[in-house]
Every structure is written in structure tokens, then in C-alpha cells.
Amino acid sequence: ADRQRGTPMTAETPAYIASLSKPITALLILQLHDEGVLSLDAPISDHLPDLPSSLGAVTARQLLTHQSGVPNWVKLAGGRTQCLQEVAETTNEDVMAMLIGAAELDFEPGTDAEYSNGGYVLLARLAEAASGSSMAALVQERIATPLGLDTTWVITEDAPDPFDRAIGTKRNGAVCDYNLWTTGAGGIAASAEDLLIVGDAWQDGRLLPPELVEEAFTPIAPPLSDDALGHGLGWFVGERAQGRVVWHTGHYAGFVNVWLLAPDADLTVVILSNGSISKVAEIADILLEHPGLQ
């Protein structure tokens, strides 16, 4: 967990989960949709009326499936290096200014698909505006508390990490740690043990009705990776020997993670790495095939 102090990483060690935060954002949006607080298919300007017309016309469904045309803010900011020092300490307010300043979408919503961190920051703003609560409060009240999670929280500029978490490093051991204050696309720390619980809850109906889970796990957008059939609501969707699988990866500042659910086999696989390991997705597939998990 911390090479400099010689602290080992365990299943209980919280780590920065990077884009594994996106299925959690999706979960919050789907809960709010189920409660009638917002609609997946209404323009987000219903709750964010000050947006430019191009951004305000997109829907939550298009944002969840990366079909909105909203630019990827990391590219707008010029982030290039492994530790992305160019975008250190960026906030959601900074991202919103970039998106508004870009003035136009990358493509007409619904006509294409391109992975967008900017779209998921917009989803965070939508969830906050529709609910009247911060992302930190939404994650705590709707996910962490009901599921009894001990080491899951939204990282914010004003609050220090409440627990000692893993420190991101390059392969040579040099520190390359988390340095952002954005939420929605990332911004969450969690342990592998907690994500196992959330993954199981995604599948067993504790957090969403079965019909919404089925919708989330259905490939309704073009594939964003070679091994996917398509993209669902917050998840890559594909097929393995166990049947349908959904997953997300998360890479940032030395953290390389994967979260995979196999609903037909009732399996959840979580791998969190803080040492720039590059093959976590392959390791997850190997674990999925392990006889002890069948």
C-alpha cells in the first residue's frame, strides 16, 4: 500500500479507484431516475438550466453510455504524462469551465460513442442538482451506509482522507499519487472488500430494481473496447464462458484497477493495484476462470 513505509496492501486497504467510480455514479443516477427525481431521457438542462444549449440538450442516458458528444476534459486540459501533473488539483468547477469554453460537442448526441470523463463530471453535477446533496453525501447515504461499507468515500478538497489509503507509484517505486478534486468520472477511494459488496449488491437487487439492473447490463451503445459487445449504463458489456459479464477499468496516478461482474454466474472480481501494473484485466479474466470461483 505504501512502498516507502513498507505497508502491505490487503483486501481492506482503500485505494483510489479512478474510473471504477463511473459505475457508482451510474448507480446514483439510476436510483434517482427510479425515484422520479430525474429522467434518463430528459435534457439535463431540466436540472442544470445555466448550461449552454449544446450541453444542456444531452440526456443522462447519453452521458452514461458515452454517446453524448461531451468532450473528454483531460484532453481539453492537455493531460499527457503518466502522473498527469498538468491537471493536478482540477475541480468539477474547472471541468465545467472547460466544457463550456469548448463551445461545441465532439459529435451529435446519439450518433456515435467516445469515452468521456467530461460526461461523467456532468452526471455528478446533475445528481447533485437534482437531489440537493453533494456527491460525497449521496455515496455515503445511498451506498456506503446501507451496505455497511467501512472504507469507501468521495475524496474532496476540503476533507482529508479519513483512513490511510494506498499510495500510487510508478513501476520503479517513485510516488505518482492521486492529485485531483473531481467527482463523477473518478474521485472515490474504496477497498477491494467494499467493492465486492457493492458488486454483489448491483446483482442481487439491494440497490436497484431488477429491470434497471438489466437495462444497465445491456449493451445499448457501440463498443468502446475490442473485447466488449457494447456499453451499458456505466459498464462495458461482453461475453465470457460464464455468460454475460460487465466491467470497468480505472487507471490514474499509479493506480490500475478492474471491477468485473458476471451476473449469470453470480460472481464479482475486484483487483486494485497501486504500482502501475498493466495487466489487471487479464488477471481478472484468469480469476474468472479459476475453478475455485465456479
Q: What topology emerges from the helices and strands here?
A:
Layout: E1 15-16, H1 21-34, H2 53-56, H3 60-64, H4 73-77, H5 92-102, H6 117-131, H7 135-147, E2 152-154, E3 188-190, H8 192-204, H9 210-216, E4 230-231, E5 236-240, E6 243-252, E7 255-262, E8 267-273, H10 280-288
Antiparallel strand pairs: 1-3, 2-3, 4-5, 5-6, 6-7, 7-8
Helix pairs in contact: 1-6, 5-6
Commentary on this structure:
The chain is an alpha+beta fold and 294 residues long. Helices cover 33% and strands 14% of the residues. It is built from ten helices and eight strands. The chain has helices at residues 21-34, 53-56, 60-64, 73-77, 92-102, 117-131, 135-147, 192-204, 210-216, 280-288; strands at residues 15-16, 152-154, 188-190, 230-231, 236-240, 243-252, 255-262, 267-273. The strands form two sheets. The protein has a five-stranded antiparallel beta sheet with strand order 4-5-6-7-8, with helices on both faces. Strands 1-3-2 form a three-stranded antiparallel beta sheet. A hairpin with a 2-residue loop joins β5 and β6 (243-252). α1 runs parallel beside α6 (117-131) and α5 (92-102) crosses α6 (117-131). It is globular and about 50 Å long. The two termini are 29 Å apart. 47% of the residues are buried.
